[in-house]
Amino acid sequence: MCCRWLVRGGGGGGDYTPVSMSKRPKHETIHEDLARAIGDGTLAPGAQLPTEAELVRTYKASRPTVTRVMQRLVLEGLVERRAGAGTFVRRGAAASSAKLFGLLIPGLGETEIFEPLCGQMARDAQSHQHTLLWGDATDHGSAGPGERAMALARDYAARRVGGVFFAPLELSSDKESVNTAVIETLEKANIPVVLLDRDIVRHPERSRYDLVAIDHRRAAHVLVAHILGQGIRQISFVARPLSAPTIALRIAGYRDALREAGIEPASKAVHFGDPSDAAFVRRVLATGQAEAIVCGNDVTAARLLHTLDELGVLVPDDVRVAGFDDVRYANLLRVPLTTIHQPCRDLGTAAVQVMVERLANPGLPARDILLGARLVVRRSTTTRREKRAAPKR
User: Fold this and answer.
1) What is the DSSP letter of 50?
2) I want to staple 131 with a disulfide (CB 3.0 to 4.6 A). Which of 35, 209, 245, 339 is the partner?
3) 198: which DSSP letter?
4) In a 3-state reduction of DSSP, which class is residue 196?
5) Sheet holding 235-239: strands in order across?
6) Helices 26-39 & 63-75, crossing angle to 10 degrees?
7) Could you give the CA distance from residue 300 to residue 303 in angstroms, rounded to a whole number?
């Protein structure tokens, strides 16, 4: 059971005592206790929070852990820090209808697009007077990703959070059974679910949950059309095994663009394998279908660029390479990467709005909220000669 705060001495700067302690990670326990106390008005607007030193003693936590919690509360708009005075609940932060929403994103710290997305979700949740719990399925020991995701789902179910934003597990052999089990656990607790980036089933199937994502199929079409526009006709697609259903949508968009250009997609041009494996990459190149290679995401593309470099294959002169997501390092690779930019902040805003609407109207049919995505052209698909020949705009 999570800790509750008792307030002694009225509105501001009272004596705060935890009722019970949790075995969950301390930063999550401290954050939830404070956020809940703010949300239900126990810590009233304008009230002073315990000092970091007091929280360290109360929770037997480290100072960096407490500082991390305070920074999250500031980011979420729940508190404000006043130099020389302390930390105070922001006016308007409490609301009787405030809810806790949970994030269930396996590998939150490993997949870059989710960090800015979740940051925006936290801000938008606060604008609706709700609070976002940053569970990332990495806070549950050394178990595998599936076990960690299930532990977090059970945790959210036990706490009866108001809703969960779920990015289904990928790149794991048990991903389908885990995703199903997570959803069932939340359903039994009557917790609404909004899916982020991907469905739990493969295209063209459709689950019965709201989904917020970019239009993956259209984005892939735009990316491949860009490459075709440079006179390239032999284009392969490379992805890692056990990838999310989004990859199937991106492959569909890749094939759409080829057919629109009068090119029948070759079955041997779509490859699933490890882009760090030189033998696999040689097989891709040996098909004769790889004047350009579109990768399932930027991580795959970055590993492929490294392997091509080891094989002495020049990018973009010998092979063009493109990715998806526009992660932070995409422009910092030895050959800057052409990619599709995910509008993370817009996705975060849309996700919170969908959850709020779902809570207000539980009977709404499941919706796909698909946002547009922007093509970012860099040197990995454009040779120096083509750049010199490009007309000025």
Assistant:
1) P
2) 35
3) S
4) strand
5) 270-272, 235-239, 292-295, 320-322
6) 40
7) 5
Structure tokens at 128: 């609706």
pLDDT tens digits for 326-339? Answer: 999 999 999 999 99
Which residues fall within 8 angstroms of residue 125, CB to CB, at 6 or more apart? 76, 101, 131, 132, 352
**Domain at 216-342+375-389: CATH architecture:** 3-Layer(aba) Sandwich (3.40)
For the beta carbon of residue 188, count every other beta carbon within 10 angstroms: 9
Q: What confidence category does residue 77 fall into, taking pLDDT thresholds of 50, 70 and 90?
A: confident
Please give the full DSSP string across 278-302, using - where no structure is assigned: HHHHHHHHHTT--SEEEESSHHHHH
Q: List CB contacts of 252: < 8 A, sequence separation 6 or more.
A: 203, 217, 220
Of the candidates 308, 320, 339, 297, the one whose C-alpha atom is nearest the C-alpha of residue 385 is: 320
- Domain parsing of the chain, residue ranges: 1-98, 216-342+375-389
* Residue type for position 229: G
CB 320 within 8 A of CB 292: yes
Query: Does residue 95 sit in helix, strand or coil?
Result: coil
Torsion sign, CA atoms 221, 225, 228, 230: negative
Question: How long is the chain?
Answer: 393
Q: Do the strands 131-133 and 100-104 form a parallel or antiparallel pair, or are they unpaired? A: parallel
Short-list 135, 141, 243, 142, CA closest to 186: 135
Rounded Cα distance between 302 and 229, Å, is: 23
The candidate with the shortest Cα–Cα distance to 213, out of 254, 176, 165, 161, is 165
The CATH number, out of the four listed (1.10.443.10, 3.40.50.11600, 3.60.15.10, 1.10.10.10), of the domain defined by the range 1-98: 1.10.10.10
HSE, CB side, 13 Å, CA atoms: give it for residue 55.
Answer: 25
Distance CA 390, CA 100 (A): 52
241 in Cβ contact with 226 (< 8 Å)? no
For residues 340 and 327, give the distance between their C-alpha atoms in angstroms, rounded to a whole number.
9
Beta strands 5-8 and 100-104 are unpaired
Q: How many CB atoms lie within 10 A of CB 27?
A: 20
- What's the pLDDT tens digit per position in 12-67? 344 444 444 445 678 888 988 888 788 777 888 889 999 999 999 999 999 999 99
254-270: pLDDT as tens digits: 999 999 999 999 989 99
Task: Give Cβ neighbours of residue 210 (< 8 Å, ≥ 6 apart).
Answer: 193, 194, 195, 354, 355, 358, 366, 367, 368, 369
